């Protein structure tokens, strides 16, 4: 569960609620990892209150502050027994510097493998991809050296995640990364928005499907057909990135990460229009019957039409109070 | 010539210089249309000085301030005799409100048709497309109603141009427009950057080709394969825009607007690498000769190799001072 930062904590709380539900609701044992943050205790207090309000049974802090701490058996046991893991925002390089390649980092990866929901917001979102945006500047135009990449936890393979995407104008830097690494899929998540990645069986095969919830969008850059000069662009020059396929996905849309295609949605039906079509369809069927009858016996038809004129109107629209 | 605003006026002046050259250099008669601007006289003074410094013979103001003015025969005659037309920045809705659909507007279109270079910066860029961004907010995520479209002059058909693209974060609004109007090509031009559109013969057919100069990039959104819910997205909700093909084009790249594809570039040759390859190639040719000789007469080969060891080194690198 990849959250773009600044998830709504006070009003609708869509994302936090969905996380607690996915962690088991009343049976949820949630481990909060606040290592990215410079605040620590305060951050734990906030998420403890939030997750308990949504009904979680237990909220436990797992707060390594050094690579030594990340070998602590008690912390690792907590992760092993958690039904949900939540990584807070802050500095993703601090988080990965302390956690990646340690038994504690391995415990997060293992929990994810056995189906425990692992969520993270902001820095805690960035670290989930195989390749992590370490830091970098804003701007819509991709430029050489505008950002740095480090290794993430790899919960999501062959990808690079960016967050606060709309709010901090991070189009350019994500485009720069996928131009330099066209095997990766770029995933930009807006604030108060989450990309939920689940495994689904599609035609007998296992696919990773990304679903969007929240107020903003998830932007995907698919560079598989890119033409680029990223390997020779100099200093901080703008980079050529031609032929990137762009997907801007609002709440309710789903994207198949395995095939890199949008999952088709059912169309919304307009009830008024449906009522009009039902009436037209009734009229058409009658007209077809009349034409057939006229072919068979013109006289019989004239008699029936005379009767019809005096009686039934077309059927009522299927919705009471529908106007046209 | 579509300039994204804030073109460099003091230092390298790449764009203004190219405009004057395209207008005829020393023979250039340039008409400046400052109508978008609220300044007028000052703006004319600045561009008059700039174009004269680049060697233009004449710079003449064409400044209609009402639709009545836009019927003035003297102004229209100036446009008819100009070898270059330059529309300044300001408010593109003011410019189109005064000029579009008037004899003066028609004179600009006619000049463009007969091959006179028509340039515009900022507002003067926006008005060149068939569909014009009237105004709208910033942001990377496309949202319903975040911008308004009006009619432009249509020098560039089936397109919508946006400017200050990187600097004012206008990704979202341009994406919104092409989602609602997938017959259009979206063209976003950064500051101090120009998209120069020229007609070229490609395989016997007339193509419009866009070439980029300047410090930033030109971003193109091709929505021809889009899947979108723009027709039913409510209020200010984020819009689904899946499958848009994105091209970020820095200086030196060319894009065929007719086929909507990147024009392939010659690869830059690294001189050091070329020198190394020349040496390797010489060695390989010798090795091939030696192998052939060994097959023919092992004894003759041994004699020749003994001689060779004492004499010629491989040829010098093709560039003096090249290192490897």
UniProtKB/TrEMBL annotation, chains A, B:
Recorded hits in SUPFAM superfamilies, A to Z, give: Class I glutamine amidotransferase-like
Q: Which terms does the record give in the GO molecular function aspect? A: peptidyl-dipeptidase activity; serine-type peptidase activity
**Region of interest (Disordered), residue spans:** 290-324
Alphabetical GO biological process terms: proteolysis
- Which reaction does this chain catalyze? [L-4-(L-arginin-2-N-yl)aspartate](n) + H2O = [L-4-(L-arginin-2-N-yl)aspartate](n-1) + L-4-(L-arginin-2-N-yl)aspartate
Q: What is its EC number?
A: 3.4.15.6
Mind telling me which InterPro entries this protein's record contains? Class_I_gatase-like, Peptidase_S51, Peptidase_S51_cyanophycinase
> Which Pfam families did the record assign?
Peptidase_S51
**Basic residues bias locations:** 301-310
* Active site positions: 122 (charge relay system), 164 (charge relay system), 191 (charge relay system)
Going by the UniProt record, its keywords in alphabetical order are:
Hydrolase, Protease, Serine protease
- Family to which the UniProt record says this protein belongs: Belongs to the peptidase S51 family.
This chain's function reads: Exopeptidase that catalyzes the hydrolytic cleavage of multi-L-arginyl-poly-L-aspartic acid (cyanophycin; a water-insoluble reserve polymer) into aspartate-arginine dipeptides.
Q: In its UniProt entry, what is this protein called? A: Cyanophycinase
What is the native source organism of this protein? Answer: Nocardioides szechwanensis
